[in-house]
Amino acid sequence: MRFIRPGKRAVAVAAAAIVASALTAAPAAAHGTTKPLGTKSLAAVLTADKSGFDRNGRDYDILTAAVLAVLKAKPSSPVGVLTDGRTALTAFLPNDRAFQRLVADIQHSRRLPGEKAAFTAVAGLGINTVESVLLYHVVPGATINRKAALKADGAKLKTAAGATVKVDVYGHWHKRIKLVDADRSDRDPRVIRFDLNKGNRQIAHGIDRVLRPINLP
Fold it and tell me: Is the pLDDT of residue 40 over 50?
């Protein structure tokens, strides 16, 4: 009997499927440790920054304001999972510059708005839309750290919004990650910060664009 060796693509696809299954089924294993994880919530991490809207495009003032706005309008929203550190999840956090770029794209403008103006524009989309966008950034049930994510090329992560986001690991010497969302007409977000709130059940990675659950014109 002659054994046929599978091609590299087939091996990569199979490996990605195995990793995706592991990430969903075993939060502790996905985190790469058997040590019990802490219960500090991502909401606690976000609200620890009291600076408010500023000129630092690398922090998460707009995201924090959006989360608080949704929870104020809809106290029972699924977004509230971010306040429950006992629930394992992985979130992708768009920084302020990411939201400014989103608003500029929606308004077909080349000029980035200030953070307060960007939040006002985002909130103007309606609380249900904001809620859906936020949930598209949350992967429930798995604590995925940088090490696990770099092994997940091709994996499709099911978000709290119900739709999926695909992990694309690229680069030869220095591995990087981008996330393929539902929008095919804009550049996909790249992960630029890893392992925020590391050591806890809720972990996050910073991204430079907002994940889009629909294809925007």
Answer: yes
